[in-house]
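Title: Request for sanity check on CBS domain-containing protein prediction

Description:
We are preparing a figure and want to confirm that the structure record we downloaded matches what your pipeline produces today. Could someone re-run it with the sequence below and paste the raw structure tokens into this thread? We only need the token string, no images.
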Amino acid sequence: MKVKEIMTPDVETCGPNTTLQEAASKMKELDVGSIPVSDDKKLLGIVTDRDIVTRGIAKQVSLNAPVSDILSSDIVKGNAEMDVEEAASLMAEHQIRRLPIVEDDQLVGIVSLGDIAVKDKTYGNADTALDEVSEPAEPER
């Protein structure tokens, strides 16, 4: 099965100048834990609820600061033609729960562990990815 068969197309995004407050509100409205950051359709990065907390609030960054101040710009990406198994493996390897799908640097969709679990019934792709994504990390002390 190909990623294009299970990905969510037409993903809601925010621009690099969107404030942390606006991004958090949009995540709440959409009931999601992350939102891709794009300039038109070109993917610049992704901001997660965890980024807002750990890179923003915990470091006393203003909620009026742009998401470009805290976004993850070194992101792992997939493509619509890749096999779901390959996407799950990539997600497991990088311990991520969501994989932006791009074509020619343009965001065309996103696939999550939930998409894989619900829509791809083949052997254990979601289980394998979830096991590896959910491996506990050692706290930095």
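Thanks, this matches our download. The mean pLDDT is 87.
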